[in-house]
Specification:
Length: 204
């Protein structure tokens, strides 16, 4: 098994193809809770980055049920049917780190999941997606909802796996931004040239 999330969460660092095997010792340290999964897409952009289809996220503060519930909750907040769970797990990673640093956040997340389970009759994860969403929608405006929303809107999209999935080419200053692919997204309509404003001098 490969520690995929540790490998791919580069956040400003250059991507590397170094493979990092997840040892038994590193697997067991911390809280003892781990979320594991398998990439659904074998030939997608994320699969090309990953040294293995299997991934694991070690939790240092939250238990695995809480982590899995938070991951699924975030899928409802920002739904992308073909985006791998491994990317949503990056949100859980950051929530777990926040919970480790702040007991109040840990209590907020744990009690939020407990309330979800209680409202759903025992296990929110076991009910259907449509029913799950009704509970998510009912929590809008609550501290639990806002904590997950505020974390996910950054953590879900600001990482190399999301960049690869959505076709983001990099920051404006990166080589190739203007003349080598900044506008090659296939999921947005083409705009007329006049909507782009004046074209900078290519030699500048």
């Amino acid at each position: 098994m490969i520690n995929l999330l540790g490998l791919l969460q580069m956040r400003g660092n250059k991507m590397t193809d170094k493979k990092l095997p997840l040892s038994r010792r590193s697997f067991l340290k911390g809280s003892g809770s781990v979320i594991v999964g398998t990439l659904a897409m074998t030939s997608g952009s994320i699969a090309l980055l990953a040294p293995s289809r299997s991934w694991a996220l070690e939790l240092n503060s939250l238990n695995d049920h809480t982590g899995k519930t938070l991951l699924q909750f975030c899928r409802h907040l920002y739904p992308h049917a073909d985006l791998e769970d491994a990317v949503y797990a990056l949100v859980v990673k950051d929530l777990d780190a926040s919970a480790a640093d702040d007991p109040d956040i840990r209590m907020l997340l744990q009690s939020g999941v407990q309330d979800l389970d209680s409202a759903a009759g025992g296990d929110w994860l076991s009910i259907g997606d449509d029913a799950q969403f009704l509970y998510v929608d009912s929590l809008q405006g609550t501290p639990f909802f806002e904590k997950l929303r505020g974390t996910a809107v950054v953590s879900l999209y600001n990482n190399d796996m999301a960049f690869a999935h959505f076709g983001y080419e990099g920051k404006k200053g990166n080589a190739g931004y203007l003349h080598r692919g900044f506008d090659d997204l296939t999921w947005l309509p083409d705009l007329p040239d006049k909507a782009s404003g004046p074209m900078p001098d290519a030699s500048a």
